[in-house]
Write a structure and sequence with these properties.
Shape of chain A: globular
Oligomer: heterodimer
Largest sheet of chain A: 4 strands, mixed
Largest interface: A-B, 38 and 35 residues
CATH architecture of chain A: 2-Layer Sandwich
Number of helices of chain A: 3
Radius of gyration of chain A: 14 Å
Number of strands of chain B: 0
Structural class of chain A: alpha+beta
CATH class of chain A: Alpha Beta
Strand content of chain B: under 5%
Distance between the termini of chain B: 28 Å
Largest sheet of chain B: none
CATH topology of chain A: YaeB-like fold
Strand order of the largest sheet of chain A: 1-4-3-2
Order of helices and strands of chain B: HHHHHH
Helix content of chain B: over 70%
Distance between the termini of chain A: 26 Å
């Protein structure tokens, strides 16, 4: 079982999503439980090693939005711990370079936060 | 990953089939499109299945992506270009079919195929970015 590391950076972005889609809280909770139980069960981004970057596609049941158009939770899997990095709704942002920029920003915040936890 | 094997594989050739399906120019308002529309409605399901298989094959390759591949980013850039080309052609098809009642069935399938390829392009854009790799490595070291 992997240790789940929840960061304030992820919580912030999650709050933003659930403000727009308030009935998706339970979908995100369920997805995080699934990720923690089986981190390798979701699609991997190629080339990341020895850690892996993966994503979980989440249907938004209350809104009848299927996985294909639903939420994406991007998470990082280390040796014994995993951390959700980002969550966004498919198509928002609409272009891939915007998604890339958001993930970079999230990763920077996560690094800063984990660094502070370690030094503190 | 072996990009030569990837791009000569049959799964990348499904777009040729897509072009065959729409070889009768769906953007035309000509009423003689009806036989073509009926015939292509059968083909579109095959096209959708072939697309699903192509994407599954790509994902399987990603799982097997070698740890010590020195050409990692070159290979991913090639894949990204290929996938972006396919996505853009599907987008053009989807726009050509949009709002045409005769092609509503085709439009539904093409929209779904487009969403899948769009997702693949996003995934490859993330993976082909060296800065994300270094940031992920830094974050993983702190976990």
């Amino acid at each position: 079982m992997f240790e789940l590391v929840l960061t304030e950076a992820f919580t912030r972005v999650r709050r933003k999503i659930t403000m727009a889609y308030q009935f998706s809280e339970s979908d995100i909770d369920r997805a995080i439980d699934e990720i923690t139980a089986a981190p390798d069960a979701h699609p991997v981004y190629p080339g990341f090693t020895p850690h892996t970057l993966r994503k979980c596609r989440v249907a938004m049941r209350a809104y009848k939005i299927p996985e294909r158009k639903g939420l994406r939770i991007i998470y990082l899997v280390g040796k014994s711990a995993l951390a959700p990095i980002h969550v966004y709704k498919k198509g928002h942002p609409p272009q891939e370079h915007m998604v890339v920029a958001e993930i970079k920003a999230q990763l920077r915040e996560v690094i800063e936060e984990l660094g502070q936890r370690r030094s503190g | 990953m072996n990009s030569v094997a990837i791009h000569s594989g049959p799964e990348w050739q499904f777009l040729g089939m897509a072009r065959d399906v729409f070889g009768f120019h769906p953007e035309s308002e000509n009423s003689s499109l009806l036989p073509g529309a009926v015939l292509s409605a059968f083909k579109i399901r095959d096209l959708h299945r072939m697309s699903d298989r192509s994407i599954a094959a790509c994902r399987a390759r990603f799982e097997a992506c070698a740890a010590g591949c020195s050409k990692k980013f070159d290979c991913l850039q090639v894949e990204l270009q290929e996938a972006t080309g396919i996505r853009d052609e599907l987008l053009a098809m989807e726009q050509a079919l949009s709002g045409k009642l005769l092609f509503a069935y085709h439009h539904k399938h093409i929209s779904e195929i487009l969403a899948d390829w769009d997702e693949l392009v996003t995934d490859l854009s993330i993976s082909a970015d060296p800065e994300i790799h270094s940031l992920a490595a830094e974050a993983a070291a702190l976990l």
